[in-house]
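Before the break, one more example. Copy the sequence into your notebook; we will annotate it together after we see the structure.
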Amino acid sequence: MKPKHDFEIEVNEAKKLVEAGKKVMLFESNYSEVQLLSETFSIDEEKVEIIDINDFQIVYMHYGEEAEIKKIAGKFEEAVIVCQHGNTSRVFADALAENGVKAYSLYGGIAGILSG
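Here is what the structure looks like once it is written out:
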């Protein structure tokens, strides 16, 4: 099955973005997932940023002032966002788009990398 949204990207496209200097941001903080992303994207483990769940709540659930939401959303500009199966990252990329921020969701997430 192919991605349904413009902001959902497959691993090969994500690799190109990361090679071009875009950030990789992960919802989980499991070391093995950080290590997998590091290997997949050929980057140092320290370059895999962990998403603060509070940032997700502020942007997705619109907690806080509009200026605060825009500021937090801006941290994710053109980032490749990864979660376990690609669902949370897809929802978050959509919420970011609603706030004028272009971010990418890795289609299939960690599970997609492992099965590919």
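The CA atoms of residues 5 and 90 lie 9 Å apart. DSSP finds six helices and five strands in the chain. Try to locate both features in your own notes.
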